[in-house]
Amino acid sequence: MGSESVKADDPMLLNAVGFVRSDYHHYDKVPHRHGGRGWTAGSSEIELLPQHAAKLGGLDGYSHLIVVYWIHRAREWRMPKDHAKPPQVKLFATRMPKRPNPIGLSVVELVSFSREEGRLEVRGLDALDETPVLDIKPYIPYFDSYQEATVPDWLTEHIERFHEHHDHDH
Questions:
Q1: For the CA atoms of 134, 139, 143, 147, what is the dihedral angle to 10 degrees?
Q2: Which CATH number characterizes residue 50's domain?
Q3: What is the pTM of this model?
């Protein structure tokens, strides 16, 4: 039995386990939360393919999930005019959707789910309608939360300006 290693230019096969069903059809229309946690206060559904519906067993009791998805319309995204990213801050220091592999990841609140229908209702998913979902994992605070985590000053300042700007708009 030989071992095979993956090379940088080897294609990788990913298959969707389901799709996002949302009222959001364009990046500019996703309402971002102005306080609290999560990308958005809006809710959306994840509709699993029939062969994956039964895999929802055991989700009872989890309040949050990690959703991994393919940002299928990343090429359409444009940097917002009011984005104040310093010039030295490059792609891997951001959460911008245009990436070498347009993979998105969101921690979402699990509102409800149905194994029979293969559907989940979630809150906080920053993904457009018809976005392919690659995986769903339970959020486990013991492993997924780091109280000592920090962010750079430029990001804190950007978030404060964003909230201040949008709070005045409403």
A1: 120
A2: 2.40.30.70
A3: 0.80
